[in-house]
Design a protein that fits this description.
This protein is mainly β and about 725 residues long. About 5% of the residues lie in helices and about 65% in strands. The chain has a 29-stranded antiparallel beta sheet that branches. The relative contact order is 0.12.
Length: about 725
């Protein structure tokens, strides 16, 4: 008898729908008689793994919105028990009734990645992907909307598991939160992933999963000309799943500008108003067809308009007083196509994306008597094309595959200076450049488990050919990785992972030209830049409520921007400065009590050391806290000061609030950004003979009202049964 009591088992199962498709993020509870002994959420593939469960008889209860509650009774009497596929059935939605069941928290941690569910965050509903990431632990955003993750700007952006032709910072500003199902952040990717970027951000867009007719409509209206509408429509049966989404949005941010410059002993004070605007709209279509019981064909296509504008007007006081009108706008069409085939352990696909770009920038200085003193104008245009083919085999233990990725980019640039004697713009420089990069990669990985230990070993090889103008590079690289986890108890898991990654220079950093940006600024490329190589290792402990980790990353060939003052111009150019080290830690806690209270908080700290001709050190940390009570959510963010090679970004902090009300199939949300009016970004840069500070503060108040309507006509209709029990603590 004692031997039986001490024995424990591991249970696995897969949650599927009536079409045998996985149902992701189901909530589950394990009961021993009437006592809850375990619980949590399945992953994106519908997989549930319950470890260290003592022998006995249990009930496993599975819940998901739009499906009937499923209860499975199981007798645990051996070390490993695979329950196979557990099917849950959809149910009809009665429009006069609103059913609330347990939903996942905003952020969860699973299998080496952080998963964010934007629909659960009241303060970012009606915003963009960039705004969502601002509230994620370990992520910070500077005053140019550049994202930094664990102290690094090097990340790879995927949309539905594939790269986008848009520049990552531009793409994040174009994707409305209402179109996003989840965001996955993989801080230490395995060899299975393409080696580019220290971190992978994968944005998974919404489609419909349930059989029948589904649609969701979202509309928003806010201060400072913020508005938009989004529609998702889908229909599916056992053979075919079709969904389409349309969106039109205008995101507008107005701010106050304050700049102080000291140049060769001369002082200048600049104040004024600025704005940032994006106006994305487009259509996306998804189609899955079950050709046979084992073969699935997939199609995804999208066409969208993208743009990013910023501009404004400032007044400068110094040796002379003048007004500056400035504008910079990028826009174009973005198209993508994906064709895929899946059969048992085999997955293959081809994707193509293209982005057109039309950029216009101007900067005009006007005297007190309203005459043009100086004026510059620049234009840039050209397409970016991305071709990608993958083949993967994965039988759960052994995986291998191939990935080919081609990027081809053409840029045509013109720069004009205003001739005040003729009152016309005169062309001063004109160039065209082609950038080409072709990467071939193969990988293999093996994963298994031994008692309470689960492990994965991987190795990747990549060959990259790069050419810009007449400058070529060809290099071969090997990228190993491993991931080991150990479950001490059912809810306590230790993990250790390692990976080697690469970060290629951006095309504009390589351009072998000196580009004039305005009357006093120039940018110079460096075609001889080498890629950065990062070795990262992370050790952590994960429980039902907490996740704690420490990490170390060493980056060779660190690329940073250098600014000098030469011949009356500020000149910025990239260099490989040496190597850098990052020592960091993260701790997060998430606690949910019933349906109406949730508390989550996190802190991320890191020490960065940059070694070049001198050592530069920087210690930073950020805090995130979210409290949800009934219909109210408050989110507070604090980012400590951060130092760079030549300057520093000051601390910033703010509190956002959101309210949500439900009425039948309607959801009404009111959110208020920066309720205490404290959010501002201040930076300083210094060098030989110059010093500059800049402060940008968003105009206030920023308020949005959002209405969401969800409708489903599923294959079966029945009145939803109300549940009395609540899922606490998960």
């Amino acid at each position: 008898m004692l031997f039986t009591i001490l024995q424990s088992s591991t249970i696995t199962l897969n949650v599927i729908d009536e079409k045998n498709n996985p149902v992701p993020y189901c909530a589950y509870i394990v009961y021993k008689d009437t006592t809850k002994v375990a619980g949590g959420y399945c992953n994106e593939n519908g997989n549930i793994k319950i470890e260290n469960l003592p022998y006995g008889i249990y009930k496993i209860q599975i819940d998901h919105l739009g499906y009937e509650t499923k209860t499975v009774q199981v007798e645990v009497n051996k070390n490993f028990l695979d329950l196979g596929n557990i099917q849950i059935k959809p149910k009809g939605i009665i429009l006069k009734e609103q059913q609330v069941i347990a939903q996942p928290p905003i952020i969860t941690y699973e299998q080496g990645k952080r998963v964010i569910k934007p629909s659960e965050d009241l303060t970012t509903i009606g915003s963009t992907a960039l705004d969502i990431l601002k509230n994620v632990p370990g992520v910070s955003v500077d005053n140019n909307d550049n994202i930094q993750i664990r102290g690094s700007y090097n990340y790879t952006l995927y949309i539905n598991g594939r790269p986008t032709a848009l520049d990552p910072s531009d793409a994040l500003k174009q994707i409305p939160s209402s179109q996003i199902d989840r965001i996955e952040i993989i801080t230490n990717p395995s060899a299975r992933y393409e080696a580019e970027g220290n971190t992978i951000i994968n944005i998974v867009l919404k489609t419909t999963r349930e059989e029948g007719l589904n649609y969701s409509f979202n509309a928003r209206l806010g201060t400072f000309e913020n508005y938009g509408a989004n529609l998702i429509f889908g229909i599916s049966n056992k053979k075919l799943k079709f969904s389409t989404s349309l969106n039109y949005n205008n995101f507008n941010f107005k701010n106050d500008i304050n700049i102080r410059r000291e140049v060769s002993g001369n002082n200048f004070q600049t104040t004024g108003d600025g704005y940032r605007n994006t106006n994305p709209y487009g259509i996306r279509v998804n189609l899955d067809y079950n050709l046979t019981k084992k073969d699935i064909l997939s199609f995804e296509g999208g066409l969208s308009h993208w743009n990013f504008d910023f501009g404004g007007s400032t007044n400068t006081e110094g040796n002379s007083n003048y007004r500056t009108d400035f504008f910079s706008g990028r826009s174009g069409l973005n198209a993508s196509l994906f064709l895929g085939w899946n059969r048992d352990f085999i997955n293959s696909g081809f994707s193509y994306s293209t982005r057109g770009i039309d950029e216009l920038s101007y900067n005009t200085d006007i005297s007190e008597n309203n005459k043009i003193i100086n004026a510059t104008k620049s234009t840039e245009e050209g397409p970016v094309n991305n071709y990608r083919f993958n083949f993967d085999f994965d039988n759960k233990n052994l995986a291998f595959g191939y990935l080919g990725n081609i990027i081809n980019r053409d840029d045509r640039y013109k720069f004009y200076i205003y001739d005040t004697t003729q009152n016309i713009y005169v062309l001063k420089s004109n160039y065209s450049v082609n950038f080409y990069r072709f990467t071939n990669g193969i990988y293999s990985s093996y994963n298994n488990n031994y008692k309470k230990i689960q492990y994965q070993l991987g190795l990747r090889f990549e060959n990259t050919k790069r050419k810009i103008a007449d400058f070529e590079k060809d290099y071969n690289d090997i990228f190993p990785s491993f991931n080991i986890s150990y479950k001490l108890f059912q809810t306590y898991q230790f993990y250790l992972n390692y990976s080697r990654r690469i970060s290629h220079p951006r095309p504009w950093q390589l351009e072998p030209f000196e580009v004039q940006l305005d009357q006093i600024s120039k940018r110079r490329g460096n075609p001889n830049l080498n890629p950065e190589y990062a070795n990262s290792i992370e050790l952590g402990l994960q429980t039902s409520y907490t996740d704690a980790s420490i990490y170390y990353r060493k980056v060779e060939n660190t690329i940073d921007e250098i600014t000098t003052y030469e011949n009356n111009y500020f000149i910025t150019y990239p260099e490989n400065l040496g190597f850098s080290e990052f020592f960091g830690s993260e701790f997060s806690i998430n606690f949910k009590k019933g349906r109406f209270m949730e508390f989550s908080s996190s802190i991320n700290t890191y020490q960065q050391n940059l070694y070049s001709n001198k050592k530069t050190s920087n210690f930073s940390y950020d805090l995130r806290t979210t409290i949800r009570l009934l219909v109210l959510q408050l989110t507070g963010v604090y980012n400590s000061p951060r130092k760079g090679w030549q300057g520093e970004i000051s601390q910033n902090y703010y509190i956002d609030a959101g309210l949500r009300f439900l009425y039948r199939n309607f959801v009404f949300v009111l959110n208020f950004s920066d309720i205490l009016k404290t959010n501002r970004i201040k930076s300083e840069v210094q060098g030989t003979n110059y010093y500059q500070t800049q402060e940008i503060k968003n105009k206030w108040p920023s308020i949005q009202f959002i209405m969401i309507y969800n409708f489903q006509v599923l294959r079966k209709y029945q009145k939803p049964q109300q549940r009395e029990e609540e899922m606490e603590g998960f």
